[in-house]
Design brief:
Elements: E1 2-4, E2 7-9, E3 21-24, E4 30-34, E5 37-38, E6 41-44, E7 51-55, E8 57-58, E9 61-69, E10 74-82, E11 84-89, E12 97-99, E13 102-107, H1 114-123, E14 127-130, E15 136-138, E16 154-162, H2 164-168
Parallel strand pairs: 3-12
Antiparallel strand pairs: 1-2, 3-6, 4-5, 4-7, 8-11, 9-10, 10-16, 11-13, 14-16, 15-16
């Protein structure tokens, strides 16, 4: 049996060889179907069987949080990032018993520029002019919750703006 590029190839044994077995873990990220039937556990397989592998993935996400301060004349925002993941089968060559294992690759979201951040603030109803301050970075400040996965730093930004309530009142 050979596993390469998320595909499984089976070769029947010689006259006195043992039949190949495939061990499918109970893992929501991996679905294995043999001849159309979902299988979890150890299964004896042979040439000619249709083995389908479906691998889940988790997309990265970005969400914004805002806080209005200084007499409702400034908005402090934070960007929270959750990394995504893609999975692939660990490759094996000419094995009799294959235990399926996943390799995980981290997927980072596309970086956000100031124009995208301002566009998002405007879509939330904030109006005003950005304050050009140097970006501040935190890696593990528990008070503001700005710690990212694996200790990666996330950026904070600020913008001079009216709150959505003030904007609707014409202030």
């Amino acid at each position: 049996m050979t596993i390469r590029d998320n595909h499984i190839w089976i070769r029947n044994p010689d006259d006195q060889g043992a039949w190949p077995t495939l061990v499918n873990p109970d893992d929501a990220r991996l679905t294995v179907r043999i001849d159309g039937e979902k299988r979890i556990s150890e299964v004896v397989v042979q040439e000619g069987q249709r083995i389908e592998v479906e691998l889940a993935s988790k997309a990265p996400t970005i969400w914004f949080a805002t806080k209005v301060i200084r007499h409702n004349m400034e908005v402090i925002g934070s960007i929270h990032v959750t990394y995504g993941e893609t999975y692939r089968l660990r490759e094996m060559e000419d094995v009799r018993r294959a235990v399926l294992e996943l390799e995980i690759q981290t997927v980072r979201p596309e970086p956000l520029g100031m124009d995208k951040i301002l566009e998002h603030l405007q879509s939330m109803g904030y109006v005003g002019t950005p304050i050009r301050r140097p970006w501040r970075r935190w890696t593990s400040d528990r008070r503001n919750g700005m710690r990212g996965p694996s200790g990666d730093a996330l950026s904070a930004w600020s913008s001079s703006a009216l709150s959505p309530t003030q904007a609707s009142q014409g202030l």
